[in-house]
Amino acid sequence: MTTLAGGTDTLTRDALTVLQPGFTGTTAPDWLLRRLGEGLASVGLFGRNIASPGQLAELTAQLRAERDDVLVAIDEEGGDVTRLEVRTGSSFPGNHALGAVDDVELTRDVAHELGRRLAACGVNLNWAPSADVNSDPRNPVIGVRSFGADTGLAARHTAAYVTGLQSAGVAACTKHFPGHGDTAVDSHHALPRIDVPADVLTDRELTPFRAAIAAGSRAVMSAHILVPALDPDRPATLSRRILTGLLRGELGYDGLIVTDGMEMRAIAGIYGIERGSVLAVAAGADAICVGGGLADDATVRRLRDALVAAVRTGELPEERLAEAADRVRALARWASTAGRAPEETHGSEIGLHAARRALTVTVAPGLGSPETFKPLTEPPYVAALTPVANIAVGDETPWGVAAELVHLLPGTVTGSFSAEGGKESGAGAGESAGRAALAAAGPRRIVAVVRDEHRHPWMASALDTLLAARPDTIVVEMGVPQAAPRGALHIATHGAARVCGRAAAEVIAGS
Fold first, then answer.
1. Is the whole model's pTM more than 0.85, yes or no?
2. Helix (H) or strand (E) holding 406
3. Please, what's the b/e burial string for 92-107 (b: 16 or more CB within 10 A of its CB; e: otherwise)?
């Protein structure tokens, strides 16, 4: 066994190289810096690690002082899923809004500007875009993270996003292969299953990934989903048929394959993260993402040791681990030369510009057209009908239109309402929320803000109660606008980013 500088043997170094761990805090802990010296090549950042762009730049500089070619990854999709602006909401609309506009040049420009900001902070790998075709409207985890339910639309915007992001020197990681859109289960909680024939998968789910590969996506992230038509026994992340046979062989992809978070219950709850990580690398994955919930040195040691032990027992071929580590280093080399923040070319307002273009405004019959709608001049009452937070989004990121309306119409009052007792199953579960919102609003004009009304019976029930008593209520849908528009004015933003709320507030206030 070859021993390298610092006393780390080649096998152990390769095992560390394939890990992409997270950590807690806004500065790098000593254990992380030590592991970078021993061979760790990637670090994953989350909202807990970021306080400001300046602080983030200092953090990435601290990491590079230990290893100058370190891959610094982040889950920055824009839209609902933001880490750069986790406490304020994103300056960029997400995929669904961009898909609603359907201007590939705009998508490319938005992705470039987002990438430029990441590169300026020292981030060089983005776990984005989501190439999933949101074909199941009940999907609890993808939704507005998808460009839409149309395969061709998802494909062309995925390619544009990859091109724009990588033109800013940030590697794209297209996800969630082979497609997480046709699921009604969140893989953070359990193992989703997609039961469709192989030809449907080929024509629908795989098309955006082919487009991403053709566009040169430097990385692809696997999904923790079971797809029996491709592999009846193992989820995609652990399937050699899917990662090596399909992605590498049939689709001809030769870049980095990254797993989704191995601490997610779809893997950890069935296989455990150590066993899951060994199976993933054996199947063809090159980098093991872990750290959304597990973020300490003990986890890194456990995974490193599990990989080393698997090689020594013959369960994991040493050449497969070495190949995976080589792919990580190859991407690190690309990123270390490409990761320079170019000058701003599209303007700091491009996100707001895109969010404005993404709005769909519907006026109730008999009340005229969007052009003749009379904006509010008095501060309204904003009733936010709030669902349980999507884990990928997180509950710390603000959403809605209240903050923007307070700015445009000082004196605006807001309240948040949810299903009684947190139970969303019954259609009557939201009646009390509707009545409470009416009581709190008093004589003020009501702006009801919803998120995926079609997926939440209680939310639809609460809206029924509001509209029955106050038909002049304005409704803002900030999720997938699957339910029919209703209210005196209905505004579909196609996402809950801060700029989407700003765009909707401008229509309401006529600014």
1. yes
2. helix 402-408
3. bbbbbbbbbbbbbebb
